[in-house]
């Protein structure tokens, strides 16, 4: 699929990212290479050590319960986040007990703002609609 996209889109091909939940660095690296992905979004319970092992090609998706937890997560993961400007440093999603994303819920604007102050390239996911995405882009 990735090869077909590259063949059809050429230089216009967007950065292709794999989404991983609780996988080891070996499987992530193998999948990235085999499929031709540029980055790994870690959406499970991965540690900063795993992020460090990916050496700048992985970024952490966090689902904090509170603004304070979001800032703790940023301090924990940012030292091993990508430095390349094409990659997000971190992804913020809304917390939902027992789920790793895909809930359709949105993180609070207060949490977005607090993280934006400390995360250089913050990506926000969850509950985005045509009615609210503009507000987040303008933040």
Q: Can you give a write-up of this model?
A:
This protein is α/β, with parallel strands linked by helices and 139 residues long. The protein has one domain (15-138): TIM Barrel (Alpha-Beta Barrel), CATH 3.20.20. It is 36% helix and 14% strand. It has a 5-stranded parallel beta sheet with strand order 1-2-3-4-5, covered by helices on one side. Helix 4 packs parallel to helix 5 (109-116). The termini are far apart. The model has no long low-confidence stretch (mean pLDDT 93).
Write the layout of secondary structure elements.
Blueprint: H1 2-9, E1 17-20, H2 25-35, E2 39-42, H3 48-53, E3 58-62, H4 67-77, E4 90-92, H5 109-116, E5 122-124, H6 133-138
Helix pairs in contact: 4-5
Gap from first CA to last CA: 35 Å
Give me the CATH fold name: TIM Barrel
Share of residues in strands: 5-15%
CATH architecture classification = Alpha-Beta Barrel
Can you list the strand order of the major beta sheet? 1-2-3-4-5
User: For this structure, what is the CATH class?
Assistant: Alpha Beta
Mean pLDDT across all residues, rounded? 93
Q: Specify the number of helices.
A: 6
Shape: globular
Order of helices and strands: HEHEHEHEHEH
Helix % is 25-40%
Sheet with the most strands? Answer: 5 strands, parallel
Structural class computed from helices and strand pairing:
alpha/beta
Extract low-pLDDT stretches: none
Please give the number of β-strands.
5
Give the gist of this structure.
The chain is of the alpha/beta class and 139 residues long. The protein has helices at 2-9, 25-35, 48-53, 67-77, 109-116, 133-138; strands spanning 17-20, 39-42, 58-62, 90-92, 122-124.
